[in-house]
Amino acid sequence: MNIIEKIISSHSNKNSVKPGEIVDIEIDARVARDFGGPNVVKNLEDNNLKVDDVSKTFFTFDTNPTGSDQKYAINQHIVRTYARKHGIKVFDINNGIGTHTLFANGLAWPGSTAVTTDSHANILGAIGAFGQGMGDRDIAAAFHKGKIWFKVPESVKLNFVGIRPEGISAKDIVLNLLNKFGANSLLGKSVEFYGDAIDKLSLDERITIASMGTEMGVIILLFPPNKEVMDYCEERTGRKLEKIEADADAVYSETYDIDISKFVKMLSRPGKPHDAVDLNTEKLVRIDSAFVGSCTNGRMEDLRIVANILKNRKIAPGVVMKIVPTTDEIWQQCLDEGLIKIFKDAGALFSNAGCAGCAAGQVGQNGPGEITISTGNRNFPGKQGKGSVYLASPATVAASAIAGYITSEDDIPDEPAVYDFSIDEEKSANIKLDSSVHAKKKTEIEGRVWVINEDNIDTDMIYHNRYLQITDPNEMGQYIFDNLEGHEDFAKKAKPGDIVVTGKNFGAGSSRQQAVDGFKTLGIQAIVAESFGAIYERNAINAAFPILTYNNINALDLKDGDTINIDLETGKIKNISNDKTSEIEAFSEVQMEIYNNDGLF
Length: 601
Known about the structure:
The chain is an alpha/beta fold and 601 residues long.
Protein backbone atom coordinates (compact mmCIF):
# COMPACT_ATOMS: atom_id res chain seq x y z
CA MET A 1 0.00 0.00 0.00
CA ASN A 2 0.96 3.65 -0.39
CA ILE A 3 0.86 6.18 2.45
CA ILE A 4 -2.81 7.23 2.28
CA GLU A 5 -3.91 3.59 2.07
CA LYS A 6 -1.77 2.67 5.08
CA ILE A 7 -3.24 5.49 7.16
CA ILE A 8 -6.82 4.65 6.21
CA SER A 9 -6.44 0.91 6.74
CA SER A 10 -4.76 1.39 10.12
CA HIS A 11 -7.72 3.52 11.23
CA SER A 12 -10.40 1.12 9.98
CA ASN A 13 -11.20 -2.52 10.58
CA LYS A 14 -9.43 -3.57 7.36
CA ASN A 15 -5.96 -5.02 6.84
CA SER A 16 -5.72 -3.32 3.47
CA VAL A 17 -7.72 -0.93 1.32
CA LYS A 18 -7.79 -0.01 -2.35
CA PRO A 19 -8.88 3.08 -4.29
CA GLY A 20 -12.65 3.35 -4.57
CA GLU A 21 -13.42 1.50 -1.33
CA ILE A 22 -15.55 3.34 1.21
CA VAL A 23 -14.60 2.70 4.82
CA ASP A 24 -15.26 4.13 8.27
CA ILE A 25 -12.12 5.81 9.61
CA GLU A 26 -11.32 6.40 13.27
CA ILE A 27 -10.41 10.06 13.70
CA ASP A 28 -7.61 10.97 16.11
CA ALA A 29 -8.43 14.71 16.25
CA ARG A 30 -12.00 15.99 15.70
CA VAL A 31 -11.92 19.76 15.40
CA ALA A 32 -14.27 22.67 14.65
CA ARG A 33 -13.34 26.33 14.30
CA ASP A 34 -15.20 29.54 15.10
CA PHE A 35 -16.08 29.32 11.40
CA GLY A 36 -18.51 26.40 11.22
CA GLY A 37 -18.24 25.58 14.91
CA PRO A 38 -21.67 26.97 15.88
CA ASN A 39 -23.30 24.87 13.16
CA VAL A 40 -21.51 21.79 14.50
CA VAL A 41 -22.93 22.59 17.94
CA LYS A 42 -26.39 23.11 16.43
CA ASN A 43 -26.26 19.75 14.63
CA LEU A 44 -25.25 18.00 17.84
CA GLU A 45 -27.92 19.66 19.97
CA ASP A 46 -30.74 19.45 17.41
CA ASN A 47 -30.13 15.73 16.99
CA ASN A 48 -29.45 15.07 20.69
CA LEU A 49 -26.00 13.64 19.94
CA LYS A 50 -23.36 13.05 22.61
CA VAL A 51 -19.62 13.56 22.10
CA ASP A 52 -17.72 10.28 21.69
CA ASP A 53 -14.40 11.22 23.32
CA VAL A 54 -13.76 14.74 24.61
CA SER A 55 -10.01 14.03 24.85
CA LYS A 56 -9.92 13.86 21.03
CA THR A 57 -12.37 16.72 20.45
CA PHE A 58 -11.36 20.38 20.12
CA PHE A 59 -12.48 23.85 19.08
CA THR A 60 -10.07 26.35 17.53
CA PHE A 61 -10.76 30.07 17.16
CA ASP A 62 -8.60 31.37 14.35
CA THR A 63 -10.78 33.16 11.80
CA ASN A 64 -11.53 36.17 13.98
CA PRO A 65 -8.97 36.18 16.80
CA THR A 66 -9.37 39.90 17.37
CA GLY A 67 -13.06 39.54 18.27
CA SER A 68 -13.67 42.49 15.95
CA ASP A 69 -16.86 41.19 14.36
CA GLN A 70 -20.14 40.96 16.26
CA LYS A 71 -21.31 37.83 14.45
CA TYR A 72 -18.06 36.00 15.17
CA ALA A 73 -18.23 37.13 18.80
CA ILE A 74 -21.69 35.56 19.07
CA ASN A 75 -20.53 32.35 17.38
CA GLN A 76 -17.48 32.09 19.61
CA HIS A 77 -19.63 32.49 22.72
CA ILE A 78 -22.00 29.75 21.50
CA VAL A 79 -19.06 27.40 21.08
CA ARG A 80 -17.41 28.35 24.38
CA THR A 81 -20.66 27.73 26.25
CA TYR A 82 -21.07 24.29 24.65
CA ALA A 83 -17.42 23.43 25.29
CA ARG A 84 -17.66 24.34 29.00
CA LYS A 85 -20.78 22.26 29.37
CA HIS A 86 -19.19 19.16 27.84
CA GLY A 87 -15.57 19.56 28.96
CA ILE A 88 -14.15 20.15 25.48
CA LYS A 89 -10.82 21.93 25.06
CA VAL A 90 -11.01 25.34 23.32
CA PHE A 91 -7.90 26.82 21.72
CA ASP A 92 -9.15 30.36 21.99
CA ILE A 93 -8.45 33.62 20.16
CA ASN A 94 -4.99 33.97 21.73
CA ASN A 95 -3.73 30.72 20.19
CA GLY A 96 -3.45 30.93 16.40
CA ILE A 97 -4.43 28.88 13.35
CA GLY A 98 -6.13 25.62 14.24
CA THR A 99 -4.27 23.32 11.85
CA HIS A 100 -0.94 24.66 13.13
CA THR A 101 -2.21 24.10 16.66
CA LEU A 102 -2.52 20.41 15.81
CA PHE A 103 1.18 20.34 14.85
CA ALA A 104 2.37 22.42 17.78
CA ASN A 105 0.37 20.61 20.48
CA GLY A 106 1.11 17.09 19.34
CA LEU A 107 -2.51 16.44 18.34
CA ALA A 108 -1.40 15.27 14.90
CA TRP A 109 1.58 13.07 14.05
CA PRO A 110 2.81 10.95 11.12
CA GLY A 111 0.14 8.40 10.26
CA SER A 112 -2.59 10.08 12.33
CA THR A 113 -6.01 11.33 11.18
CA ALA A 114 -7.78 14.64 11.75
CA VAL A 115 -10.87 16.41 10.44
CA THR A 116 -11.86 20.03 10.91
CA THR A 117 -14.10 22.70 9.39
CA ASP A 118 -10.96 24.20 7.79
CA SER A 119 -10.69 23.41 4.06
CA HIS A 120 -6.90 23.46 4.44
CA ALA A 121 -6.80 20.66 7.00
CA ASN A 122 -4.91 18.65 4.38
CA ILE A 123 -1.91 20.77 5.41
CA LEU A 124 -1.25 17.87 7.79
CA GLY A 125 0.21 16.04 4.80
CA ALA A 126 3.36 18.02 5.64
CA ILE A 127 4.09 15.54 8.46
CA GLY A 128 2.66 12.49 6.69
CA ALA A 129 -0.71 12.67 8.45
CA PHE A 130 -4.22 12.50 6.97
CA GLY A 131 -6.14 15.77 7.41
CA GLN A 132 -9.40 16.74 5.77
CA GLY A 133 -11.61 19.78 5.82
CA MET A 134 -15.29 18.87 6.03
CA GLY A 135 -18.71 20.45 6.46
CA ASP A 136 -20.49 20.91 9.77
CA ARG A 137 -22.61 17.75 9.44
CA ASP A 138 -19.51 15.61 8.88
CA ILE A 139 -17.71 17.19 11.82
CA ALA A 140 -20.73 16.79 14.09
CA ALA A 141 -20.86 13.10 13.12
CA ALA A 142 -17.14 12.76 13.88
CA PHE A 143 -17.68 14.42 17.29
CA HIS A 144 -20.46 11.92 18.00
CA LYS A 145 -19.15 8.65 16.53
CA GLY A 146 -15.42 9.27 16.47
CA LYS A 147 -15.48 8.01 12.91
CA ILE A 148 -16.44 9.20 9.45
CA TRP A 149 -16.90 7.42 6.15
CA PHE A 150 -14.35 8.09 3.47
CA LYS A 151 -13.65 6.94 -0.07
CA VAL A 152 -10.09 5.75 -0.59
CA PRO A 153 -8.55 8.00 -3.26
CA GLU A 154 -6.17 7.08 -6.04
CA SER A 155 -2.58 8.06 -5.39
CA VAL A 156 -0.05 9.88 -7.56
CA LYS A 157 3.71 9.80 -7.10
CA LEU A 158 5.92 12.82 -7.85
CA ASN A 159 9.64 12.04 -8.15
CA PHE A 160 11.74 15.20 -7.92
CA VAL A 161 15.06 15.09 -9.73
CA GLY A 162 17.81 17.69 -10.12
CA ILE A 163 19.15 20.28 -7.71
CA ARG A 164 16.92 23.00 -6.30
CA PRO A 165 18.09 26.37 -7.64
CA GLU A 166 19.38 29.06 -5.31
CA GLY A 167 16.61 31.39 -4.11
CA ILE A 168 13.72 29.09 -5.03
CA SER A 169 11.41 29.05 -2.01
CA ALA A 170 8.83 26.47 -0.97
CA LYS A 171 6.14 28.86 -2.23
CA ASP A 172 7.90 28.98 -5.60
CA ILE A 173 7.91 25.17 -5.65
CA VAL A 174 4.16 24.86 -5.14
CA LEU A 175 3.42 27.66 -7.61
CA ASN A 176 5.57 25.88 -10.21
CA LEU A 177 3.48 22.76 -9.55
CA LEU A 178 0.26 24.76 -9.92
CA ASN A 179 1.58 26.05 -13.24
CA LYS A 180 2.18 22.47 -14.38
CA PHE A 181 -0.90 20.69 -13.03
CA GLY A 182 -3.45 23.50 -12.73
CA ALA A 183 -6.45 23.25 -10.44
CA ASN A 184 -7.92 19.95 -11.61
CA SER A 185 -5.37 17.67 -13.33
CA LEU A 186 -4.87 15.83 -10.04
CA LEU A 187 -8.43 16.31 -8.82
CA GLY A 188 -9.39 14.00 -5.96
CA LYS A 189 -5.97 12.32 -5.83
CA SER A 190 -3.59 11.77 -2.94
CA VAL A 191 -0.15 12.98 -4.04
CA GLU A 192 3.14 11.76 -2.53
CA PHE A 193 6.48 13.62 -2.83
CA TYR A 194 9.87 11.92 -3.26
CA GLY A 195 13.44 12.81 -4.16
CA ASP A 196 16.61 14.29 -2.62
CA ALA A 197 15.28 17.85 -2.92
CA ILE A 198 12.14 16.79 -1.04
CA ASP A 199 14.06 15.00 1.72
CA LYS A 200 15.93 18.24 2.41
CA LEU A 201 12.79 20.35 2.84
CA SER A 202 12.29 21.72 6.35
CA LEU A 203 9.01 21.27 8.21
CA ASP A 204 8.02 24.89 7.53
CA GLU A 205 8.69 24.43 3.80
CA ARG A 206 6.63 21.24 3.72
CA ILE A 207 3.79 23.09 5.44
CA THR A 208 3.87 25.82 2.78
CA ILE A 209 3.60 23.30 -0.06
CA ALA A 210 1.03 21.05 1.65
CA SER A 211 -1.19 24.03 2.46
CA MET A 212 -1.90 24.63 -1.23
CA GLY A 213 -3.11 21.11 -1.99
CA THR A 214 -6.67 22.41 -1.85
CA GLU A 215 -5.85 24.94 -4.58
CA MET A 216 -4.52 22.06 -6.73
CA GLY A 217 -7.76 20.16 -6.26
CA VAL A 218 -6.08 17.21 -4.55
CA ILE A 219 -7.26 15.32 -1.50
CA ILE A 220 -3.85 15.80 0.10
CA LEU A 221 -0.16 16.41 -0.64
CA LEU A 222 1.73 13.86 1.47
CA PHE A 223 5.39 14.05 2.50
CA PRO A 224 7.11 10.98 3.93
CA PRO A 225 8.52 12.37 7.20
CA ASN A 226 12.28 12.95 7.43
CA LYS A 227 14.31 12.96 10.65
CA GLU A 228 13.57 16.64 11.40
CA VAL A 229 9.82 16.02 11.15
CA MET A 230 9.98 12.86 13.26
CA ASP A 231 12.04 14.61 15.94
CA TYR A 232 9.61 17.55 16.00
CA CYS A 233 6.51 15.34 16.27
CA GLU A 234 8.05 13.12 18.95
CA GLU A 235 8.98 16.18 20.98
CA ARG A 236 5.47 17.62 20.61
CA THR A 237 3.60 14.37 21.35
CA GLY A 238 6.00 13.32 24.09
CA ARG A 239 6.33 9.76 22.82
CA LYS A 240 8.24 7.60 20.36
CA LEU A 241 6.52 7.45 16.97
CA GLU A 242 6.61 4.99 14.12
CA LYS A 243 7.66 6.43 10.78
CA ILE A 244 5.10 5.93 8.05
CA GLU A 245 6.32 4.95 4.59
CA ALA A 246 4.82 3.51 1.41
CA ASP A 247 5.59 -0.13 0.64
CA ALA A 248 8.20 -0.81 -2.01
CA ASP A 249 5.53 -2.32 -4.24
CA ALA A 250 2.93 0.40 -3.60
CA VAL A 251 0.58 1.09 -6.51
CA TYR A 252 0.08 4.57 -7.99
CA SER A 253 -2.37 5.61 -10.69
CA GLU A 254 0.25 7.98 -12.15
CA THR A 255 3.93 8.74 -11.65
CA TYR A 256 5.64 11.97 -12.71
CA ASP A 257 9.31 12.93 -12.80
CA ILE A 258 9.69 16.61 -11.89
CA ASP A 259 12.94 18.43 -12.68
CA ILE A 260 13.20 20.93 -9.85
CA SER A 261 16.34 22.46 -11.38
CA LYS A 262 14.09 24.15 -13.95
CA PHE A 263 11.89 25.84 -11.34
CA VAL A 264 11.82 29.65 -11.33
CA LYS A 265 10.52 32.31 -8.99
CA MET A 266 6.76 32.50 -9.46
CA LEU A 267 3.65 34.37 -8.50
CA SER A 268 -0.06 33.84 -9.12
CA ARG A 269 -1.96 36.55 -10.91
CA PRO A 270 -5.16 37.93 -9.34
CA GLY A 271 -8.24 35.75 -9.37
CA LYS A 272 -6.79 32.24 -9.71
CA PRO A 273 -4.10 30.56 -7.60
CA HIS A 274 -3.33 28.27 -10.54
CA ASP A 275 -2.70 31.23 -12.85
CA ALA A 276 0.94 30.96 -11.78
CA VAL A 277 3.58 32.64 -13.95
CA ASP A 278 7.25 33.57 -13.93
CA LEU A 279 7.76 36.46 -11.52
CA ASN A 280 9.59 38.43 -14.22
CA THR A 281 6.42 38.71 -16.31
CA GLU A 282 4.75 40.80 -13.59
CA LYS A 283 7.71 42.84 -12.37
CA LEU A 284 7.17 46.58 -11.87
CA VAL A 285 3.40 46.25 -11.27
CA ARG A 286 2.61 48.93 -8.69
CA ILE A 287 1.19 47.71 -5.37
CA ASP A 288 -0.85 49.36 -2.63
CA SER A 289 -0.36 46.76 0.09
CA ALA A 290 1.60 43.68 1.08
CA PHE A 291 0.57 40.82 3.33
CA VAL A 292 2.67 38.10 5.00
CA GLY A 293 0.84 35.36 6.85
CA SER A 294 -1.92 32.72 6.52
CA CYS A 295 -1.47 29.00 7.15
CA THR A 296 0.80 28.96 4.09
CA ASN A 297 3.52 31.42 5.04
CA GLY A 298 3.24 32.63 8.62
CA ARG A 299 5.83 30.25 10.06
CA MET A 300 9.08 31.20 11.80
CA GLU A 301 11.28 30.55 8.77
CA ASP A 302 9.01 32.77 6.67
CA LEU A 303 9.14 35.64 9.15
CA ARG A 304 12.92 35.43 9.49
CA ILE A 305 13.22 35.75 5.71
CA VAL A 306 10.97 38.81 5.78
CA ALA A 307 12.92 40.35 8.68
CA ASN A 308 16.25 39.86 6.90
CA ILE A 309 14.93 41.77 3.88
CA LEU A 310 13.23 44.53 5.90
CA LYS A 311 16.13 45.11 8.29
CA ASN A 312 17.45 48.69 8.03
CA ARG A 313 14.96 49.40 5.23
CA LYS A 314 11.62 51.17 5.00
CA ILE A 315 8.38 50.14 3.35
CA ALA A 316 7.69 52.30 0.30
CA PRO A 317 5.60 55.46 0.83
CA GLY A 318 1.93 54.78 0.17
CA VAL A 319 2.31 51.02 0.71
CA VAL A 320 0.75 49.28 3.73
CA MET A 321 2.39 46.07 4.95
CA LYS A 322 0.65 43.65 7.32
CA ILE A 323 2.36 40.67 8.97
CA VAL A 324 0.48 37.95 10.86
CA PRO A 325 2.13 34.83 12.39
CA THR A 326 0.35 31.48 12.39
CA THR A 327 0.56 30.80 16.14
CA ASP A 328 1.06 32.69 19.36
CA GLU A 329 4.20 30.61 19.97
CA ILE A 330 5.69 32.03 16.76
CA TRP A 331 4.53 35.54 17.76
CA GLN A 332 6.43 35.14 21.03
CA GLN A 333 9.49 33.83 19.20
CA CYS A 334 9.41 36.90 16.92
CA LEU A 335 9.45 39.04 20.06
CA ASP A 336 12.34 37.08 21.61
CA GLU A 337 14.44 37.25 18.42
CA GLY A 338 13.84 40.96 17.88
CA LEU A 339 11.86 40.49 14.65
CA ILE A 340 8.93 42.59 15.81
CA LYS A 341 11.21 45.61 16.24
CA ILE A 342 12.52 45.11 12.70
CA PHE A 343 8.98 44.93 11.35
CA LYS A 344 7.88 48.02 13.23
CA ASP A 345 11.00 50.01 12.35
CA ALA A 346 10.34 49.23 8.69
CA GLY A 347 6.78 50.53 9.03
CA ALA A 348 4.83 47.25 9.01
CA LEU A 349 1.80 46.33 11.09
CA PHE A 350 2.45 43.17 13.13
CA SER A 351 -0.72 41.52 14.41
CA ASN A 352 -1.70 38.72 16.76
CA ALA A 353 -1.72 35.16 15.42
CA GLY A 354 -4.55 33.88 13.26
CA CYS A 355 -5.85 33.31 9.76
CA ALA A 356 -5.86 37.06 9.02
CA GLY A 357 -7.11 38.36 5.67
CA CYS A 358 -7.67 34.88 4.27
CA ALA A 359 -10.68 34.50 6.56
CA ALA A 360 -11.95 38.08 6.36
CA GLY A 361 -11.78 38.33 10.12
CA GLN A 362 -8.55 40.13 10.82
CA VAL A 363 -5.95 42.38 9.21
CA GLY A 364 -5.14 41.64 5.59
CA GLN A 365 -8.31 42.55 3.70
CA ASN A 366 -8.09 45.02 0.82
CA GLY A 367 -10.56 47.40 -0.80
CA PRO A 368 -11.86 47.93 -4.36
CA GLY A 369 -9.07 48.94 -6.73
CA GLU A 370 -6.34 48.05 -4.22
CA ILE A 371 -3.49 45.88 -5.49
CA THR A 372 -2.05 43.53 -2.89
CA ILE A 373 0.83 41.07 -3.00
CA SER A 374 0.21 38.29 -0.49
CA THR A 375 1.73 35.07 0.83
CA GLY A 376 -1.74 33.53 1.17
CA ASN A 377 -2.94 30.43 -0.62
CA ARG A 378 -6.03 31.87 -2.30
CA ASN A 379 -6.68 34.97 -4.35
CA PHE A 380 -10.20 34.28 -5.59
CA PRO A 381 -12.21 37.48 -6.15
CA GLY A 382 -13.46 38.67 -2.77
CA LYS A 383 -11.45 36.13 -0.75
CA GLN A 384 -8.98 38.62 0.70
CA GLY A 385 -11.12 41.67 0.00
CA LYS A 386 -12.51 43.43 -3.05
CA GLY A 387 -9.17 44.39 -4.57
CA SER A 388 -6.69 42.41 -6.68
CA VAL A 389 -4.36 39.92 -4.99
CA TYR A 390 -1.11 38.44 -6.30
CA LEU A 391 0.25 35.37 -4.50
CA ALA A 392 3.99 35.11 -3.93
CA SER A 393 6.72 34.00 -1.53
CA PRO A 394 7.54 35.90 1.68
CA ALA A 395 10.78 37.15 0.11
CA THR A 396 8.98 38.50 -2.95
CA VAL A 397 6.30 40.16 -0.81
CA ALA A 398 8.88 41.84 1.44
CA ALA A 399 10.97 43.03 -1.50
CA SER A 400 7.89 44.39 -3.26
CA ALA A 401 6.77 46.25 -0.13
CA ILE A 402 10.12 48.06 -0.05
CA ALA A 403 10.14 48.79 -3.79
CA GLY A 404 6.48 49.85 -4.05
CA TYR A 405 6.05 47.48 -6.99
CA ILE A 406 6.41 43.75 -7.65
CA THR A 407 10.03 42.68 -7.59
CA SER A 408 12.34 40.00 -6.17
CA GLU A 409 14.69 40.18 -3.20
CA ASP A 410 17.71 40.35 -5.54
CA ASP A 411 16.31 43.36 -7.41
CA ILE A 412 15.29 45.87 -4.72
CA PRO A 413 15.82 49.47 -5.87
CA ASP A 414 17.84 52.02 -3.90
CA GLU A 415 14.85 54.36 -3.97
CA PRO A 416 11.23 53.17 -3.77
CA ALA A 417 8.56 54.08 -6.26
CA VAL A 418 6.53 57.08 -5.13
CA TYR A 419 2.96 57.71 -6.22
CA ASP A 420 2.40 61.07 -7.95
CA PHE A 421 -0.94 62.49 -6.90
CA SER A 422 -0.38 65.98 -8.37
CA ILE A 423 -3.27 67.52 -10.33
CA ASP A 424 -2.66 69.00 -13.75
CA GLU A 425 -2.52 72.74 -13.08
CA GLU A 426 -4.17 73.69 -16.37
CA LYS A 427 -7.12 71.40 -15.69
CA SER A 428 -7.51 72.54 -12.09
CA ALA A 429 -7.54 76.17 -13.20
CA ASN A 430 -10.63 75.44 -15.27
CA ILE A 431 -12.62 74.00 -12.37
CA LYS A 432 -15.51 76.35 -11.57
CA LEU A 433 -17.58 76.29 -8.41
CA ASP A 434 -21.35 75.93 -8.89
CA SER A 435 -22.86 79.12 -7.52
CA SER A 436 -26.37 78.55 -8.85
CA VAL A 437 -29.28 79.05 -6.47
CA HIS A 438 -31.29 75.92 -5.67
CA ALA A 439 -35.03 76.01 -6.00
CA LYS A 440 -36.79 76.35 -2.66
CA LYS A 441 -38.11 73.01 -1.41
CA LYS A 442 -41.52 72.45 0.10
CA THR A 443 -41.62 73.42 3.73
CA GLU A 444 -44.77 71.52 4.65
CA ILE A 445 -44.68 67.75 5.13
CA GLU A 446 -47.36 65.26 6.02
CA GLY A 447 -47.13 61.57 6.89
CA ARG A 448 -48.00 58.58 9.03
CA VAL A 449 -46.55 58.58 12.54
CA TRP A 450 -44.40 56.04 14.36
CA VAL A 451 -44.56 56.85 18.09
CA ILE A 452 -41.49 55.44 19.89
CA ASN A 453 -41.72 56.50 23.53
CA GLU A 454 -38.09 55.99 24.49
CA ASP A 455 -35.30 58.31 25.59
CA ASN A 456 -31.60 57.94 24.80
CA ILE A 457 -31.97 55.86 21.64
CA ASP A 458 -28.32 55.68 20.62
CA THR A 459 -26.73 55.19 17.23
CA ASP A 460 -26.03 51.50 17.90
CA MET A 461 -29.75 50.98 18.43
CA ILE A 462 -30.47 52.92 15.26
CA TYR A 463 -27.74 51.43 13.07
CA HIS A 464 -25.51 48.83 14.72
CA ASN A 465 -21.74 48.92 14.29
CA ARG A 466 -21.74 45.46 12.68
CA TYR A 467 -22.98 47.19 9.49
CA LEU A 468 -20.41 49.98 9.43
CA GLN A 469 -18.50 48.42 6.54
CA ILE A 470 -21.46 49.25 4.26
CA THR A 471 -20.74 52.39 2.26
CA ASP A 472 -23.68 52.43 -0.16
CA PRO A 473 -26.53 54.46 1.41
CA ASN A 474 -29.06 52.44 -0.60
CA GLU A 475 -28.16 49.36 1.48
CA MET A 476 -28.40 51.06 4.87
CA GLY A 477 -32.15 51.44 5.33
CA GLN A 478 -32.80 47.73 5.86
CA TYR A 479 -30.84 47.81 9.14
CA ILE A 480 -32.50 50.80 10.81
CA PHE A 481 -33.65 49.98 14.37
CA ASP A 482 -32.84 46.27 14.04
CA ASN A 483 -30.95 46.62 17.34
CA LEU A 484 -33.77 48.52 19.11
CA GLU A 485 -35.78 46.11 21.23
CA GLY A 486 -39.40 45.94 20.14
CA HIS A 487 -38.73 47.67 16.82
CA GLU A 488 -36.47 45.16 15.06
CA ASP A 489 -38.93 44.92 12.14
CA PHE A 490 -39.20 48.70 11.65
CA ALA A 491 -37.42 48.70 8.27
CA LYS A 492 -39.79 46.06 6.89
CA LYS A 493 -42.93 47.88 8.02
CA ALA A 494 -41.94 51.49 7.40
CA LYS A 495 -43.23 53.24 4.30
CA PRO A 496 -41.90 56.24 2.38
CA GLY A 497 -43.33 59.41 3.88
CA ASP A 498 -43.50 58.11 7.45
CA ILE A 499 -42.47 60.35 10.36
CA VAL A 500 -40.87 59.16 13.63
CA VAL A 501 -41.80 60.84 16.93
CA THR A 502 -39.63 59.94 19.91
CA GLY A 503 -38.16 61.14 23.23
CA LYS A 504 -35.03 62.81 24.59
CA ASN A 505 -31.45 62.55 23.32
CA PHE A 506 -32.26 60.71 20.09
CA GLY A 507 -29.07 59.69 18.26
CA ALA A 508 -26.80 59.66 21.29
CA GLY A 509 -23.54 57.84 20.93
CA SER A 510 -21.17 57.63 18.00
CA SER A 511 -20.67 59.88 14.99
CA ARG A 512 -21.95 57.44 12.37
CA GLN A 513 -23.64 59.13 9.43
CA GLN A 514 -25.35 55.85 8.54
CA ALA A 515 -27.81 56.41 11.41
CA VAL A 516 -29.11 59.38 9.42
CA ASP A 517 -28.70 58.12 5.87
CA GLY A 518 -30.54 54.87 6.64
CA PHE A 519 -33.73 56.81 7.39
CA LYS A 520 -33.38 58.71 4.12
CA THR A 521 -32.98 55.42 2.25
CA LEU A 522 -36.26 54.19 3.75
CA GLY A 523 -37.98 57.42 2.70
CA ILE A 524 -38.66 58.56 6.27
CA GLN A 525 -39.64 62.25 5.99
CA ALA A 526 -38.57 63.51 9.41
CA ILE A 527 -37.78 62.71 13.03
CA VAL A 528 -39.46 64.72 15.80
CA ALA A 529 -37.85 64.40 19.23
CA GLU A 530 -37.67 66.25 22.53
CA SER A 531 -33.92 66.57 21.95
CA PHE A 532 -31.13 65.11 19.82
CA GLY A 533 -27.57 63.97 20.44
CA ALA A 534 -25.25 66.82 19.42
CA ILE A 535 -23.38 64.93 16.70
CA TYR A 536 -26.54 63.34 15.35
CA GLU A 537 -28.20 66.78 15.11
CA ARG A 538 -25.34 68.11 12.98
CA ASN A 539 -25.25 64.99 10.80
CA ALA A 540 -28.98 65.21 10.10
CA ILE A 541 -28.99 68.94 9.35
CA ASN A 542 -25.94 68.62 7.05
CA ALA A 543 -27.65 65.76 5.19
CA ALA A 544 -30.80 67.92 4.67
CA PHE A 545 -32.77 65.36 6.69
CA PRO A 546 -35.56 67.14 8.64
CA ILE A 547 -35.26 66.83 12.41
CA LEU A 548 -37.37 68.95 14.75
CA THR A 549 -37.58 69.35 18.52
CA TYR A 550 -40.57 69.88 20.79
CA ASN A 551 -41.11 71.01 24.38
CA ASN A 552 -44.48 69.34 24.91
CA ILE A 553 -46.15 67.23 22.30
CA ASN A 554 -48.83 65.71 24.54
CA ALA A 555 -51.40 68.17 23.24
CA LEU A 556 -51.50 66.23 19.96
CA ASP A 557 -52.57 63.01 21.71
CA LEU A 558 -50.48 61.05 19.18
CA LYS A 559 -50.68 57.32 18.66
CA ASP A 560 -49.09 54.97 16.14
CA GLY A 561 -50.60 55.34 12.68
CA ASP A 562 -51.92 58.89 13.10
CA THR A 563 -51.22 61.34 10.29
CA ILE A 564 -49.49 64.60 11.13
CA ASN A 565 -48.74 67.78 9.20
CA ILE A 566 -45.64 69.85 9.99
CA ASP A 567 -44.70 73.32 8.74
CA LEU A 568 -40.90 73.39 8.86
CA GLU A 569 -40.84 77.18 8.51
CA THR A 570 -43.33 78.12 11.22
CA GLY A 571 -43.11 75.12 13.54
CA LYS A 572 -46.87 74.46 13.49
CA ILE A 573 -47.76 70.77 13.85
CA LYS A 574 -51.22 69.22 13.49
CA ASN A 575 -52.56 65.75 14.15
CA ILE A 576 -54.80 65.27 11.12
CA SER A 577 -56.35 62.19 12.69
CA ASN A 578 -57.92 64.10 15.60
CA ASP A 579 -57.57 67.75 14.45
CA LYS A 580 -55.36 68.71 17.42
CA THR A 581 -52.52 71.22 16.98
CA SER A 582 -49.36 72.31 18.75
CA GLU A 583 -46.06 74.06 18.10
CA ILE A 584 -42.51 72.78 17.78
CA GLU A 585 -39.21 74.48 17.07
CA ALA A 586 -39.08 75.65 13.46
CA PHE A 587 -36.04 75.28 11.22
CA SER A 588 -33.27 77.75 11.94
CA GLU A 589 -31.99 79.93 9.13
CA VAL A 590 -28.94 77.68 8.70
CA GLN A 591 -31.00 74.48 8.75
CA MET A 592 -33.38 75.88 6.13
CA GLU A 593 -30.50 77.03 3.91
CA ILE A 594 -28.86 73.58 4.01
CA TYR A 595 -32.25 71.88 3.53
CA ASN A 596 -32.95 73.92 0.40
CA ASN A 597 -29.42 73.21 -0.81
CA ASP A 598 -30.08 69.42 -0.55
CA GLY A 599 -27.26 69.13 1.95
CA LEU A 600 -24.07 70.78 3.17
CA PHE A 601 -22.40 70.32 -0.22
